[in-house]
């Protein structure tokens, strides 16, 4: 079972369903129906297992909007873009991403 990790304790993680944006994987991309382990800081000594979720929807997108950015835990699209640039760099930020909707199952 693969892992999705978060670097912040986003408030959305307490919802039954939540969204997250992830870059497509080159080895094996995410797919609807996949069950995944959800962690906070999975590669850190402070890692915390949050539970298991299932991907219930996947949409490939080039850009987001203010509503989706807020749904994902940001103040607005600009806030999301600034976080992406800081985390991934300018060039990667503008590549298509998967908008994944997950539902907690455990």
Structure description:
With 106 residues, the chain is α+β, with helices and mostly antiparallel strands. It has a single domain, classed as Roll (Archaeosine Trna-guanine Transglycosylase, Chain: A, domain 4). The protein has 3 helices and 5 strands; from the N terminus they run ββββαααβ. The protein has a 5-stranded mixed sheet with strand order 1-3-4-5-2, with no helix packed on it. β3 and β4 form a beta hairpin. The mean pLDDT is 88.
By DSSP (H or I, 4+ residues per run), the number of helices equals: 3
Query: How many beta-strand segments?
Result: 5
Distance between the amino and carboxyl termini: 14 Å
Classify the helix fraction into a percent range: 10-25%
- Helix and strand composition category: alpha+beta
> Unreliable runs, pLDDT <50, ≥5 residues?
none
Taken as a percent bin, the fraction of beta residues is 35-45%
CATH topology: Archaeosine Trna-guanine Transglycosylase, Chain: A, domain 4
Outline, from the CA principal axes? globular
Q: Report the order of strands and helices.
A: EEEEHHHE
- What is the correct CATH architecture? Roll
Largest sheet: 5 strands, mixed
How are the strands of the biggest sheet laid out side by side?
1-3-4-5-2
C-alpha Rg (nearest Å) = 13 Å
Number of separate domains: 1
Mean pLDDT: 88
Please report the first level of CATH classification, the CATH class.
Mainly Beta
